Amino acid sequence: MNTLLLFVVTAVAEIVGCYLPWLWLRKDGSAWLLLPAAVSLALFAWLLTLHPTASGRVYAAYGGVYIGTALMWLWLVDGIRPSRWDLLGVGLCLVGMMVIMFAPRTA
Questions:
Q1: What are the pLDDT digits (tens) for 30-45?
Q2: How many Cα atoms within 13 Å fall on the side-chain side of residue 39?
Q3: Under 8 Å between Cβ of 44 and 14
């Protein structure tokens, strides 16, 4: 459960770090949005280092959680409810994430 929560927090940091420049560029937001965006992306990179397994495995598994978090962002921030196909896709990704992260290993 801690791994999943850490992945979600990591995904939110990445999404915020990308969303704020998007607001600046696409929605005529203030250039000051770039400062918290940079902080958020630095936080994202640091959070990735907290995962206890090999970096390539972490990045691969993180992708599944990122997709789920992005769809929640779509719903909560953009106001667009994910379709059943979105939910099916994220379900498949999360199953893949669990296989990668929780498979028994010797090394």
A1: 999 999 999 999 999 9
A2: 4
A3: yes
Cα separation, 39 vs 11, in Å, equals: 14
Q: For residue range 2-31, what is the model confidence (pLDDT) as tens digits?
A: 888 998 999 999 999 999 999 999 999 999
The structure tokens 């106001």 sit at 79
What are the residue boundaries of the structural domains of the chain, listed by start? 2-102
Indicate the range of 54-58, 65-69, 71-75, 85-89 predicted with least confidence: 54-58
| Residue whose pair of structure tokens reads 């927090």 in the numeric block | 9
* Six-digit token string for 48: 């990735």
Q: How many angstroms from the chain centroid is the CA of residue 74?
A: 12
Sign of the alpha-carbon torsion through 82, 60, 49, 45? negative
